[in-house]
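During the no-cost extension, the postdoctoral fellow (Dr. R.K.) reprocessed legacy sequence entries with the updated structure-token encoder. One reprocessed record is reproduced below for audit purposes.
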Amino acid sequence: MVTLAYHLEWLDKDPFRRWKMTFEKKERDFLTVNDLCNIETYEFPIERLERVRDLFLFSCYTGMCYADIRNLKDDKILVGMDGWMEIIG
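Re-encoded structure tokens follow.
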């Protein structure tokens, strides 16, 4: 937005012209089974946070990203031949 404002001459100069972006790569550990169990059993004081926890755990166990979970509809969940629920295409 600042660049656009500068090009439209709304700003006399680009305030970020000398700013350089830096990136620090950090190694992140995977969650352990114990970590997931602790998250599963934690009691949140707010019901909304319980739902967030459930969605996070669903994401961990299925490997689905947040965007896919958000777009998941009932018609994409079926009961398989083995009786387990399955997510399709």
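The longest strand covers residues 77-79. The chain has four helices and two strands. The remaining legacy entries will be reprocessed before the final report is submitted.
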